């Protein structure tokens, strides 16, 4: 059965740690592997980091730049080289590719989200391998994916992929960073989110010198992907041929089992496409109603409102400690919500002077995180 497969490769696998130069043999093997998958009839998307890393190597910079404008300039240099190398290698094997550069804004607006979906479908239908990266050169801070682990999970969710492979410089997920904790326990399988929470995995700092997110962004990417029904695997980038072995059933890397009933596409867009603009802190009763009974959020259960937002924007719903439990499209702006928080629904019209929605967030617009 043909599958849709998204493969994300990080800077740490694409470049040699000592010199920052491209790891050509890894890239060539990855190219061959993805072409093999295409020949087997699978639909393949590559999410490739490396614009900043390759740009630095090209310009002789020995450290990842911190200043935003410099990073954006360096990414413009690197992205061109990166795509040229991919196109040369894939062309040798007669495989057409496409460059797809996305910013967060492309997924926020529903029409642009659907447009991105349609473009991916066309490319995959044409047998092309899209090579995706964040459009680093124009992305602004507030509308950034920030890391390609998240971007790859959002792409996998958008196209409803069967597999997401996160290729990195460790062979799998461990109970703690194996660089600093030598006896960290390897983890082969995570069956659901509850199990993940119970494992209390330590993710340490920012990852390798050239990577951006470290393991923490891979775990949150896995969370996004499995909610969309995508089986996710963290495995070593140096051995891209393992992708084929894994699809054939070999137990390599760390596998995250997909949620049996994926969240609907619209709710996934609310949860991960949109960028939250505020926070609502809830009391225990409201948390229970949402988590256990799948109810809508009423004004009575809101303890505090943070941020400025308009009605129909997305907000995070948090417990008293600020831990996010859900997200949703809010029916009132922040100013009105400050006035009606903690109040019974029947009093809202009297307080605001107009009859608004009975719920603050209707359950159809509310997604558990
Ligand atoms: N619990 C953990 N298990 C495995 N690796 C971890 C863990 N916590 C932190 N890491 C670190 O995450 C790094 C990979 O992240 P990163 O450098 O961002 O890679 P990439 O460039 O592939 O995205 C590894 O080199 C490892 O040191
Ligand atoms: N978009 C950036 C990469 C961001 C990123 O997530 O990097 P990495 O942690 O190496 O996957 C680039 O191309 O350099």
TrEMBL record:
Alphabetical keyword list: Amino-acid biosynthesis, ATP-binding, Cytoplasm, Kinase, Nucleotide-binding, Proline biosynthesis, Transferase
Q: Which PROSITE patterns match?
A: GLUTAMATE_5_KINASE, PUA
Cellular localization per UniProt: Cytoplasm
**Which reaction does this chain catalyze?**
L-glutamate + ATP = L-glutamyl 5-phosphate + ADP
What is the top EC class of this enzyme, as a single word? transferase
Q: Name one GO cellular component term.
A: cytosol
Range of residues in the leader sequence = none
Query: Might you give the EC number(s) for this enzyme?
Result: 2.7.2.11
Note the SUPFAM superfamilies from the entry. Carbamate kinase-like, PUA domain-like
- Ranges for domain PUA: 278-361
Q: Which residues bind substrate?
A: 49, 136, 148
One GO BP annotation here? L-proline biosynthetic process
Q: Which GO terms describe its molecular function?
A: ATP binding; glutamate 5-kinase activity; RNA binding
Q: Does the keyword Amino-acid biosynthesis apply?
A: yes
Xref: Pfam families: AA_kinase (PF00696), PUA (PF01472)
Q: What does this protein do?
A: Catalyzes the transfer of a phosphate group to glutamate to form L-glutamate 5-phosphate.
Q: Which family does it belong to?
A: Belongs to the glutamate 5-kinase family.
Q: What is this protein called?
A: Glutamate 5-kinase
Q: Which gene encodes it?
A: proB
């Amino acid at each position: 059965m043909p599958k849709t497969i998204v493969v994300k490769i990080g800077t740490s696998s694409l470049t040699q740690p000592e010199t920052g130069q491209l790891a050509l043999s890894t890239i060539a093997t990855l190219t061959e592997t993805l072409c093999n998958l295409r020949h087997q009839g699978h639909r393949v998307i590559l999410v490739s980091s490396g614009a900043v890393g390759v740009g630095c190597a090209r310009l002789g910079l020995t450290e990842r730049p911190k200043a935003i404008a410099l990073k954006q300039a360096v990414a413009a240099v690197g992205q061109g080289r990166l795509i040229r190398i991919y196109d040369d290698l894939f062309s040798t094997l007669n495989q057409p590719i496409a460059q797809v550069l996305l910013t967060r804004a492309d997924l926020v607006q529903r029409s642009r989200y659907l447009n991105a979906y349609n473009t991916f479908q066309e490319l995959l239908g044409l047998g092309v391998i899209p090579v995706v990266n964040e459009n680093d050169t124009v992305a602004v801070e507030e509308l950034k994916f920030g890391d390609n682990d998240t971007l790859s999970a959002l792409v996998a969710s958008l196209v409803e992929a069967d597999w997401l492979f996160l290729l990195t410089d460790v062979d799998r997920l461990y109970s703690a960073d194996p660089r600093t904790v030598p006896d960290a326990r390897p983890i082969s399988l995570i069956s659901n989110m509850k199990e993940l929470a119970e494992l209390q995995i330590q993710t340490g700092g920012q990852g390798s010198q050239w990577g951006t997110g470290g393991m923490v962004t891979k775990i949150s990417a896995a969370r996004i992907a499995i909610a969309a029904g995508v089986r996710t695997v963290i495995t070593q980038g140096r051995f891209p041929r393992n992708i084929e072995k894994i699809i054939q059933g070999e137990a390599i890397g760390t596998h995250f089992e997909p949620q049996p009933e994926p969240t609907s596409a619209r709710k996934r867009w609310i949860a991960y496409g949109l960028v939250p603009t505020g926070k609502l802190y809830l009391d225990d009763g409201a948390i229970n109603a949402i988590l256990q009974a799948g109810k809508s959020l009423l004004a009575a259960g809101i303890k505090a409102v943070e941020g400025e937002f308009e009605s129909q924007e997305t907000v995070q719903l948090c417990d008293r400690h600020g831990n996010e439990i859900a997200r949703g499209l809010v029916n009132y702006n922040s100013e009105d919500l400050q006035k009606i928080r903690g109040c019974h629904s029947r009093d809202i019209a009297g307080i605001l002077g107009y009859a608004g929605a009975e719920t603050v967030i209707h359950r159809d617009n509310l997604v558990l995180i």
